[in-house]
Amino acid sequence: MNALAELSVTDSLADAPTVQEAESAIRTLIRFIGENPDREGLRGTPARVIRAYREWFGGYRENPVTLLERTFEDAGDYGEPVELRDIPFHSICEHHMAPIRGKAHVAYLPVDRVVGISKLARVVDACARRLQIQERLTDQIATAIDEALRPRGVAVVIEADHACMSTRGIGISGARMVTKRLIGEFHSDTRLRSEFLASLSL
Question: Which of 64, 130, 137, 175 is deepest in the core (most CB within 10 A)?
Answer without folding.
Answer: 137
